[in-house]
């Protein structure tokens, strides 16, 4: 994947077609999030001023190949840095979190289970004659950052901030199970 500096990105964005629009979305996943009729669910939000029905990629952990609504919320996302020796952390800030999401998040805090986040980027084309937006690709997002685990969450009455980090596979023991003399006497 190419490495772009901030200056490169500013130049790319400045020369982008005026009829293209980048839409950033987040999907928060936790074991306690349940759909109204039962079954697993997630919190899906879009950095925009309107809700969007968007296709989710086929290999997604939830709702693969389906179209789901991403609710418009004011949020700030700082993408993970791509530096040597760093796992990369994504900073997420959500303003004016709706009460239904706050209730789900409060419930999630009481259960010791990992929470993950998926960041997706969709490209929309803007028809300047009609004012309508259409997806550049109906197959799903054009870019996806997944395998991020939420590590820290802080909140105030107006803003919820969190830090998500890539899963550290380099420092994970393999095999996960430690074969000891007491646990597996037949091996020794």
From TrEMBL:
Source species, domain of life: Bacteria
Protein name as catalogued: DUF1833 family protein
Q: What species was this sequence derived from?
A: Microbaculum marinum
């Amino acid at each position: 994947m190419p490495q772009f500096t901030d200056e490169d990105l500013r130049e790319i964005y400045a020369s982008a077609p005026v009829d293209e629009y980048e839409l950033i979305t987040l999907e928060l996943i936790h074991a306690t999030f349940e759909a109204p009729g039962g079954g697993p669910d997630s919190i899906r939000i879009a950095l925009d001023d309107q809700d969007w029905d968007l296709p989710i990629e086929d290999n997604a952990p939830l709702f693969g190949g389906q179209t789901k609504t991403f609710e418009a919320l004011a949020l700030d996302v700082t993408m993970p840095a791509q530096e040597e020796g760093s796992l990369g952390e994504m900073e997420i800030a959500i303003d004016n979190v709706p009460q239904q999401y706050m209730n789900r998040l409060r419930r999630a805090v009481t259960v010791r289970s990992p929470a993950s986040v998926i960041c997706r980027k969709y490209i929309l084309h803007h028809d300047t004659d009609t004012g309508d937006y259409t997806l550049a690709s109906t197959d799903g997002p054009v870019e996806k950052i997944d395998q991020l685990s939420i590590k820290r969450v802080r909140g105030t009455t107006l803003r919820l901030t969190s830090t998500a980090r890539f899963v550290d596979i380099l420092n994970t023991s393999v095999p996960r199970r430690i074969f000891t003399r007491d646990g597996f006497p037949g091996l020794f």
